[in-house]
Amino acid sequence: xxxxxxxxxxxIGLEVFFKSCLCLSENQVEKFVLFASKSLVDKTxxxxxxxxxxxxxxxxxxxxxxxTSWVSDQNPTMSSLEMxxxxxxxxxxxxTLPSDKASLSFNNKTCAGYTEYLRKRFNxxxxxxxxxxNKNTIGLLTDHIPLSNVPKLATSxxxxxxxxILNHDDFKETKYxxxxxxxxxxxxxxxxxxxxxxxxxxxxxxxxxxxxxxxFGPIPSDTIWNNKHYYGExxxxxxxxxxxxxxxxxxxxxxxxxNITYGLDFVRMxxxxxxxxxxxxxxxxxxxxxxxxxxxALKREGL
Length: 303
What we know:
Elements: E1 2-5, H1 13-21, H2 26-29, E2 32-37, H3 38-47, E3 52-54, E4 58-61, E5 64-71, H4 76-87, E6 93-96, E7 105-106, E8 109-110, H5 114-121, E9 128-133, E10 137-140, H6 150-166, E11 176-180, H7 195-209, E12 214-219, E13 235-239, H8 242-253, E14 257-262, E15 267-271, H9 288-300
């Protein structure tokens, strides 16, 4: 199954989810279980002019039925997430609708996003944040950390993050793995820093351990997009830090991208955009990014 959690409020999350459902078949929508506040669902649907009926365990949305587990109106962001995680299995996919950082917490401490929350929740530091678009798929060696912490942490994580991806079934057909450098010109053989030398050493170890795969790098991040293996279903690119990878990815894919967390027993994914509270409940949100995410999740289900 595909578990959908409502995200924070105010947000366009539920709006783009319901609009996306209208673009999918009844058979596809049957794979969804929505964890959400009944009052917020009612508020959302009443503002976007879609025929609906709210039942005890489902939503009748036009001619489609969406299974639901209603959560309390008190902190529905965390309630929906925790309820979904209590039921999820290795065969399921978790889709989290967008949340602001202030709505996510673990042990009463705010988390800098879903990936950080999941790291703490499952006591697993070795999670990899991945972004899949129409053109390409990228991963981040480091994600939501201060830039000053990147050099030391990134070089120590090359092998760990690469193996999370290399050993996952979703990438068993992936042939080409590219790694960006950290410094300008990938360090110019140590002239501009030694961090890229560490990345080179890690890549050489990967070549030995996975002889059936092709590894390239470190490649200067300002030209990596021009590499012949950068695009395609059979390639994967690692960037060293958040803005280095996402600046390029978002310029290429705009809002059509899936933010995916690997390294847990299940796969978690989300839209590649924020909550947009300024346009919540105005029926003007662009749902195409959410539709892409749901189709990506359904593809994992063979639909």
